[in-house]
Specification:
Strand content: under 5%
Number of domains: 1
Largest sheet: none
Shape: rod-shaped
Helix content: over 70%
Distance between the termini: 77 Å
Number of strands: 0
Number of helices: 3
Length: 74
């Protein structure tokens, strides 16, 4: 089977443009509703990354302070 017949990007893009032109509010609502879960996942992952970076920085400061105390004791 020809891949072109399986998924015709030209026809899909024409349909999408026609849909956006005929019903712009419906189109935008659908796009926003489709993208909302991705934005939420992005926020959660960003929050987790920020927490990991904070924990790493805290651990590095703790190690640095310990090393300074060892150096002072010598």
């Amino acid at each position: 089977m020809d891949k072109r017949k399986l998924f015709d990007t030209k026809a899909w893009s024409e349909y999408t443009v026609e849909w956006a032109a005929e019903d712009p509010y419906g189109f935008l609502t659908t796009v926003i509703l489709d993208l909302t879960p991705l934005f939420l996942v992005s926020v959660v992952l960003f929050w987790k990354l920020a927490k990991m970076i904070e924990a790493r920085e805290k651990e590095l400061k703790k190690k640095q302070k310990c090393q300074e105390n060892i150096t002072k004791a010598k």
